[in-house]
Amino acid sequence: MNEQAGLVAMHQIAGVGWHTIDKLRRAGWSPDQDLTPSIIDGLAGQQVSQKTVEYIRTQWTPAFIKKVTSELKDRGIAVLTPIDEKYPGLLKEIAQPPWVLYIKGDIELLSEPCLAVVGTRKSTPYGLRVTRILSEQITRAGWVLVSGMANGIDGEAHRSALKAEGKTIAVLGTGVDVMYPKNHRSLYEEIAAKGAVISEMPPGTQPAPGLFPQRNRIISGLSVGTVVVEAAGRSGSLITANFSIEQGREVFAVPGPITSPQSRGTLSLIQQGAKCVIEAEDIFEEFTYNLPCAKEKEITEDLAKVALSEQEREILRYIQTEPVQITTLMEKTAGKMTVGEVHQTLLSLEIKQEIAQLPGSYYIRK
Asked: Does residue 91 fall inside a structural domain?
């Protein structure tokens, strides 16, 4: 019997969780052997009921192991367990490393240096813009960006990494074959094709509130550090940050307006000692000993990315991280530009993807 196949099949028995497998291992069980009398006695000593033992024995059969292995192969789902050489070394160091990682995509990414970028689902335009800047710079420097594919900051981090032709890993709180949230179907498919989507939950597992905090320990566990862009006072992102602290990893936080509820969590992290991040170099300088060299870093000013006219530069002086109404722009540029020139310049900046128009004729930097 194959060790990996035996462990994966045990992991897919309904009701057998992390602690049950841990007790099996402590009792001397190896995934390539049957449940011997001595192992059963060992389980009894760890308060595992006879009913549970019998249930496992009836479910964990050669036929079931073969069925699980065949189904995963047919669905293009790879697996890694702690007994495999390619299992991420950093993940082995956490308190409860997943017994099984299910993977769709590039399995090799899990062995590369990773940084996590996470944040609130209820992101602000400021948070999304900062996420785009940092995520592009992180991946262009050669790091693999890890996040949770949630709405808001997480999704924007993945999209920005892909846009920069970088590498990214999405860690799900559902089965690796279950797209959640559903509006991220195209993002899920692109990550699976160009990066990796992973989960410790058996395929088919549907979303449930308790699964997402568990997933967060994997996001931080894969990464040498976690960057929190925006987070409310109570946020899943703060759970990820706390896991990073417990795991002895670096924690970074992006400051934001003290009036913004979405910045309360990050400002609190900074007060507690997380490193304040105002540019990507603040992150990179903590890891100079192993900074990847896959690509030359491209950390340049936004205005240097595309050729801008003097009028475009003038307009951009007044469009920053907070939305600005068009009437305000006209007041600021009065005497320098006509109303028609303002409209034409705004349209040009939108085409160049320097700004975005919001409802009510408000504009914001991208």
From this structure: no
